[in-house]
Amino acid sequence: MCPAKSDDGVRRGFVIPIGGAEDRSQDPVILQRFVELCGGKDARIVIIPTASRLEETGPNYEAVFTELGAAKAISLPIYSREDAQRDDYLEEMAQATGIFMTGGNQLRLSTILGGTPVAQCIRRSNAAGVHVAGTSAGAAIMPEHMIAGGATGALPSEQGVTFAPGMGLISKVILDQHFSQRNRLGRLLSAVSYNPFASGLGICEDTAAFIGPDGILEVVGSGSLTVVDPSDLQYSSMAEASTGESITLIGLKLHMLSSGAKYCLNTRQAWPK
Description:
By secondary structure, the protein is an alpha/beta fold. The chain has helices at residues 29-37, 57-67, 87-94, 106-113, 117-127, 137-140, 185-194, and strands at 15-18, 44-48, 72-75, 98-101, 131-135, 145-149, 162-165, 173-176, 199-203, 207-211, 216-221, 225-229, 235-236, 249-250, 253-257, 262-264, 270-271.
């Protein structure tokens, strides 16, 4: 699934995957920048708490975004596929300048939202210039191919990752969250080994990739972003590997990017701040 097509002359909104556990009070640099991007004191932010089973998740983010200066922040309690078809929710989304998807379980998010009017609205809104951010599970669902699970550890293997369809807000990317905190390098390498078309992005907690409509991302936050660039991949043993066997990958590039550093998804070039 590719990103929804933008009308001629319309600038697509930013897509902002966050690695989870973003600072919401002491130094909320990621959420503050999101609010400013969405219009600051004129920002109207819709929160999608679907991935979480905690009733307080949505209201908590309402309070955070209001404290950070947004004109309006409203959580839509979408907890079933019927909820994801409600006209009043779609009307709220139509007025949003920013959409924020919370953390939780990405399969809960995908099974409830997948193919619904709300999911379609998120895609169309982003194509029309609305900025879409997501943390943890809300970040995982953003690419066309979503990492649904996989083993921890540093080594790639034949069954090191499982996929599910994502929302398709960004292409040319496979991403993982809570990256260094949960030791997920192996499953990101496993994901990239299937097809070198996509760059792998491993996003640490309290770290975000602000991906602009030009395909250039900027790292924001206190952690780092790991880029696995397979454009010069010479060999992958994934096709010949036995069940659970370790994978040989030759020719990968690896970038470690901290706050302010940038990477272009189109040219696969990285540069410091």
